[in-house]
Amino acid sequence: MTDVKQAALQLSEEKGGKIEVISKVPITNMDELAVAYTPGVAAVSSAIAENKEDVYRYTSKRNLVAVVTDGSAVLGLGNIGPEAAIPVMEGKSALFKAFADVDAVPISLDTQDVEEIISHVKAIAPSFGGINLEDIAAPRCFEIERRLKEELDIPVFHDDQHGTAIVVLAGLINALKVAEKTIEDVKIVINGGGSAGTAIAKKMIHAGAKNVIVCDIDGAISEDDPELQERHKELASISNPDHLKGSLEEVVKDADVFIGVSAPNVFKKEWIQTMNEKAIIFAMANPTPEIMPDEAKEGGAFIVATGRSDFPNQINNVLAFPGIFRGALDARASDITEEMQIAAAQGIASIIPDDELSVENIIPNAFNPNVSKIVAKSVNEAAE
To answer: What is 2-159's CATH superfamily?
Structure first.
């Protein structure tokens, strides 16, 4: 890990960041300059002034996404500010291009005020075909995304919520096939009541799960809890149908699936013995998961997935967001709906044929060349 960090520092210093702007058109003589800029560009601007929709026909808007952050929840580093968030936003922008040929621009805002963030994003929206919100802390991220989706006519997508949830669902679809269980019949326990945990719970329920319980640091989130936090009320209203109470250890008894988006080493291998047979463990805290895969296997886990690339079954957002935006941009969609997101998860899951599924092969490799194409196609078709 130290070698990787040192290499990242060296590369960033050498290159001065990860992205650059390259002209699509040649500008090598006066004639080319006249077409690319003045006086020729006036004709293009005039055409758009007459018909605003022609901005998609004549400009980069049709393939351009803003990667927007306030630096308040960057990776596992926390609230490190807009400048320190830039390398992550640059990396995200590079992934958009590498995996789906989507052009992306990193934008770090020097404010953590909800209204200011909404105002700034709305002000720059005419330049972009989509907005990817990134590393914005809960609960502000919920309000920011909700408002922008309501007030803009281009797709808005908070990847920390929905990208994670989509890939988790894709992995679970295949894990349940291997375990010979169905999503409607299993008990799913999610540890982490923040943006990712909330989105995962909603995605599971939308996909047909009937028994989803979310735990936070205080235990199970339940609608009848007199001390229920305001930010958890919507989640509580659709989850934990039996109003279970207690700690994670207590709630995970008789569960079929554990999904962790929380903190390192909070799940004990002994608890797996209290779960149902063929227990599925998705431990995705990074870089140290809720339980290490070898420990989970020792405890009796049937399938184990993490967010790390050095173990089988990596749950990686790069499987989702490039293809999702590729499909949404190609469809000229004004929103990335729940149906489009479920379609993306099903598309990712479908990449591995049923006869190739196994306990260590439930999710495709990020470098599988078919991933972004299939996700884009699935999203595009769901948008119609």
So the answer is: Malic enzyme, N-terminal domain (3.40.50.10380)
pLDDT of the residue at 1: 54
Same fold: 2-159 with 160-384: yes
Query: What H or E segment, with its residue span, contains residue 68?
Result: strand 64-69
CB atoms under 10 Å from CB of 261, counted, come to 28
Contact 227, 254 (CB under 8 A): no
Q: What are the residue boundaries of the structural domains of the chain, listed by start?
A: 2-159, 160-384
Q: pLDDT tens, 107-150?
A: 999 999 999 999 999 999 999 999 999 999 988 999 999 999 99
Predicted pLDDT of residue 2: 64
Q: What are phi and psi of 130, to 5 degrees?
A: -165, 160
Tell me 80's DSSP state. Answer: -
If DSSP codes are grouped into helix, strand and coil, which group holds residue 74? strand
Task: Supply 181's token pair.
Answer: 């269980």
Amino acid present at 334: S
Q: Please give the full DSSP string across 236-286, using - where no structure is assigned.
A: HHHS-TT---S-HHHHTTT-SEEEE-S-TT-S-HHHHTTSPSS-EEEE--S
H/E segment holding residue 328: helix 321-330
In sequence order, which residues have a C-beta less than 8 Å from that of residue 261 and are 6 or more positions away? Answer: 164, 190, 191, 192, 194, 196, 197, 200, 284, 285
Mark whether 58 is an active-site residue: no
**Catalytic residue (choose from 18, 92, 202, 203):** 92
Point out the residues of the chain with pLDDT beneath 70: 1-2
Give the DSSP per-residue string, 170-237: HHHHHHHHHHT--TTT-EEEEE--SHHHHHHHHHHHHTT-SEEEEEETTEE--TT-TT--GGGHHHHH
122 is an active site residue: no
The torsion region of residue 133 among left (phi > 0), alpha (psi -120 to 50) and beta comes to: beta
* Alpha-carbon gap, residue 213 to 206, rounded angstroms: 14
The CATH topology of domain 160-384 is Rossmann fold (3.40.50)
